[in-house]
Design brief:
This protein is an alpha/beta fold. The chain is built from four helices and ten strands, in the order βαββββαβαββαββ. It folds into two domains: 94 residues, Gyrase A, domain 2, CATH 3.30.1360; 45 residues, no CATH class. Bound molecules: zinc ion (ZN). The site of zinc ion has 7 residues, from helix 2.
Length: 162
């Protein structure tokens, strides 16, 4: 059974989302900039790869800053009977990240946290989190129980999961 439990009423979730301000978005920057760590460049409000411009101001991009601070934009918790599927899960997450980061340099996975009873996947953006959840659901479908919170999605592998 795929069960979608939504602890927040829809209206409350919507208003929480509106209040959510991304404090990691750079503000008031006048010049194109390049991240000293990952080399992504900010140009006309967009982060891109492979921008070849001279004299870009050095900065730390929002994704590298979030990763340094451990400040996730969204967290996905993988629990339940997941361990037998771990290699497939890890491969899928890697594919999602490669596909996403190419066009959206600020959408990344932070280092995975492998705990005793769960794996915690923290992301630097909401888009990659949605894509990762979608990829896992496509693969296991009815073998999962999903719980959606404002900043955390929990995916539990059921015992009967394939
Ligand atoms: Zn960076």
């Amino acid at each position: 059974m795929l069960e979608a439990q939504r602890p927040l009423p829809y209206a409350a979730a919507r208003s929480a989302a509106r209040r959510w301000v991304d404090s990691y978005q750079p503000r008031g920057k006048l010049h194109p900039a390049v991240c000293t760590q990952c080399r992504a460049a900010e140009w006309q409000g967009q982060w891109r790869w492979n921008v070849e411009l001279p004299d870009l101001a050095p900065v730390l991009c929002p994704a590298c800053e979030r990763t340094r601070d451990g400040a996730a934009a969204h967290t996905i918790e993988l629990t339940g009977a997941m361990p037998p599927h771990w290699n497939t899960v890890r491969t899928l997450l890697g594919q999602v990240e490669r596909d996403t980061i190419r066009d959206a340099p600020m959408e990344r996975l932070m280092p995975l946290q492998v705990l005793d009873d769960r794996v915690v996947v923290r992301t630097t953006g909401k888009q990659i989190a949605r894509r990762a959840v979608a990829a896992l659901v496509r693969r296991w479908r009815h073998g999962l129980r999903l719980t959606f919170g404002a900043d955390t999605t929990t995916i539990e592998w059921l015992d009967s999961g394939r």
